[in-house]
Amino acid sequence: MSGHPSVVAMTANSLLQVILVILGGPLLLGLMRKVRCRMEGRAGPPIRQPLLDLRKLARRERTRPEESSWIFPLAPVVLAATILVVAAIAPMLTTRPAFGWAADLFAVVFLFLLGSVFLALGALDTGTAFGGMGASRAMTIGALTEPALLVAILALSVPARTSNLPAIISQSLDHPAWLATPQRVLALVAFVIVIIAESGRLPVDNPATHLELTMIHEAMVLEYGGPDLALVKLAESMRLVVLFTLLANLFIPWGIAGAPGPSHLALSVVATAGKVAFLGIAMAAFEVTVAKLRLFRVPELLAGAFVLAVLAVVSALVVA
Amino acid sequence: MRLQSLFTRMRGLALDMGDPAPGPPVVQDAAKRLRGSLQLRHVDAGSCNGCEMEIASIFSPVYDAERFGIRLEASPRHADGLLVTGPVTRNMADPLRKTLEAVPRPRVVVAVGDCARDCGVFRGAYGVEGAVGDIVPVDLEVPGCPPDPAAIVNALRGLAGT
User: Which of A283, A249, A269 is nearest to A21 (CA)?
Assistant: First the structure.
């Protein structure tokens, strides 16, 4: 025990996490797009392109569908707010973020779910056919991904005997032998499939599609424009960064700051950025090589992820 | 051998487009506003699909318009303006007006191809309502039947300011 960090230091940690997530989200998206373009033989836009897009969108006129209510402009705000809350409390850079006691795995998963539900409500609120279709599909997929995410992290919490994410990670650091167990590998595969589905990427959903009938997430945001769209896009990219960071920290925790102090934190920023960038590059490379799954095959994939997660929990319980 | 071709591909195959000529004031205004990020909604108002093929090829590895921050969007709400091709047919005049109405302001309209500019070979045909400029205000025109992809890319680069 190297002493409790001060409240100021913990708040500064959380603030740093939030700022890095806000900046890192668009940059991660830009990096992934760059990798994709290069593999397709194109030069591709600069990595900061998503930031340029957001800057422009933030200054454009705010449009509203005629029939929409107060839910429509509220949805992007709730979506972004829930992800920022996760970014502040989750163990992204340090195992002792401010309000780390609140970063329970159930709380984090339900915060993600709250944002998704509000986005679906916003899509329904537009009153258009595609908004309703996208909302229905997103909720179908969400109903399959959220339990899988929950159960996958549960498998990690069994040996740690706590559902608190910072505690799970700091205990994994103390017991490196846990990291190579079968339940970890099963949970890892489930977690990766969940991230692909949750962030609406290939092969579950194609973020670059123009065909409304194949859309899932894009169909929900068709009616958003200007600052609202900027918020939705920013929130989506932030969610990807948060999920990648959680994946990296839960399964390969080395590099996260286990003790207070600026030097640990600086090392952690570098290590986490490296891990997230690696995951982004790997995912982009994978996306180039796969085609989108037919919508009716997606539940099979997600059911597979859920089964793997359940097996991970069962094997964790048997071993424990 | 294969490794070398992989590296060639990783560098990108794109043509060097040079610097686009500075456009008219409306284009320069747009460039100041958009600063390297231009998203357009493509509307086919009755084209023969010749222009569509050239537009599809501006996103190919050779012309690679995306490296200048130019993309086509699936929704007019996401767009900074419209990319309109073809003479406007009677059935497409209203959809074109409605699509433009859905684009957040300030917005630009780019007419691509001779048909969009003055109806081209379809002038006077019974199903044709008029050129794009007769239906909605046009800010920028790209001549050609069909226009060269490089001409389209350079016109859009002027708007994006890249």
Answer: A269
**Domains present along chain B, CATH in parentheses:** 47-160 (3.40.50.12280)
How many beta-carbon pairs below 8 A join chains A and B?
A: 86
Q: Which of A159-163, A244-248, A256-260, A294-298 has the highest mean pLDDT?
A: A244-248
A189: enclosing H helix or E strand? helix A182-198
pLDDT digits (tens, 9 = 90+) for A110-167: 999 999 999 999 999 998 889 999 999 999 998 999 899 999 988 888 888 888 898 8
pLDDT tens-place string over residues B93-130: 999 999 999 999 889 999 999 999 999 999 989 999 99
- A56 with B64: Cβ contact below 8 A: no
What residue segments make up the domains of chain A, in order of their start?
7-319
Cβ–Cβ below 8 Å for A56 and B78: no
**What gap in Å lies between CA A60 and CA B98, rounded to an integer?**
19
Q: What is the pTM of this model?
A: 0.92
The mean per-residue pLDDT over the stretch B132-146 comes to: 93
Which ipTM did the prediction report? 0.89
Give the residue from chain A lying closest to B32, CA to CA: A56
pLDDT tier for residue A2 given thresholds of 50, 70 and 90: very low
| A59 chain-B contacts, CB cut-off 8 A | 33
**Average pLDDT for A11-29:** 91
Q: Retrieve residue A136's tokens.
A: 């229905």
CB contact under 8 A, B77 and A63: yes
Task: Give the residue from A249, A307, A251, A244 showing the smallest Cα distance to A276.
Answer: A244
Kindly state the tokens that stand for B119.
Answer: 């109806």
- DSSP label at A212? G
In this structure, which amino acid lies at residue A145? T
DSSP A69-123: -THHHHHHHHHHHHHHHHHHHS-SSBS--TTGGG-BHHHHHHHHHHHHHHHHHHH
Angle between helices A226-251 and A262-289 (to 10 degrees): 110
Q: Which element (helix H / strand E) includes A281?
A: helix A262-289
Q: For residue A46, give Cα distances in angstroms to A12, A52, A53, A136, A193.
A: 31, 10, 11, 35, 28
pLDDT at A296 (0 to 100): 87
| Dist. CA B56–CA B153, nearest whole Å | 11
Query: Which residues of chain B approach chain A closer than 8 Å at the C-beta?
Result: 9-14, 33-37, 39, 61, 64, 66-69, 72, 74-75, 77-78, 80, 102-106
The pLDDT assigned to B1 comes to 53
Report which secondary-structure segment, H or E, holds B111: strand B108-112
